[in-house]
Structure formats: structure tokens, C-alpha cells
Amino acid sequence: MTTQKSAIGLIYDGQGAPEVSSKGFGELAEHIIQYAKDNDILLHQDEALANSLANLEVGQEIPEELYYVIAELIAFSYVLQGKFPPGWLALHNKLDVKV
């Protein structure tokens, strides 16, 4: 049995909780993934996380039990881009990060 490809996009503006910005399955998922690649949006593949997010509607905030894992992904994405999340400026000077 093959599982249908899914794509769930999240957006976080620094206020409140991240929310679902896009969601699709099958062919629509492929289009969302291609759009992300074409626009240099970072992608993270995690089937268990995608399954947890798949039940949410576009515009809905992520559930509290996913805050920690999503926060780690957001923070890591900042570092991959040579940036630091808000509030990390003091920590930035203490880290020796090569980008």
C-alpha cells in the first residue's frame, strides 16, 4: 500500500502560534512543494509531523503539543539562512556559527 504524498505549509509572524498556510495531498502537494522550492522556502520532510498537521485547516494554529518541535524547526531554519530568531541577538554574540 502506498501513502499519498502530503504537504502542509506553516507560517509564523513572531506573534502567537504558527498556523497552517497551505495544505494539499497528491498532485496538489506536488505543486505546493514545487512552489516552495521555486521560492527558496525551506522544506522539512517528516511523515509523522505531516500526519499530525494534516488534520488542521488552513488558517488554524498548530496545537500546543507541537510547539516545541515547530519552534526547533523555525529556529534551525533561521540558522540555516544565517539569521537568528528575535530574542537571540544577545545569544548570537556568544555563538561561533559559520554560515
Automatic annotation (TrEMBL):
Physiological role: Required for formation of the rod structure in the basal body of the flagellar apparatus. Together with FliI and FliH, may constitute the export apparatus of flagellin.
Record organism: Pseudoalteromonas spongiae
Family of this protein: Belongs to the type III secretion exporter family.
Gene3D superfamilies: secretion proteins EscU
Name assigned to this protein: Flagellar biosynthetic protein FlhB
Top-level division of the source organism's lineage: Bacteria
Keyword vocabulary terms for this entry: Bacterial flagellum protein export, Protein transport, Transport
PANTHER family, per database record: FLAGELLAR BIOSYNTHETIC PROTEIN FLHB
The keyword Protein transport appears for this protein: yes
Pfam short name (any one): Bac_export_2
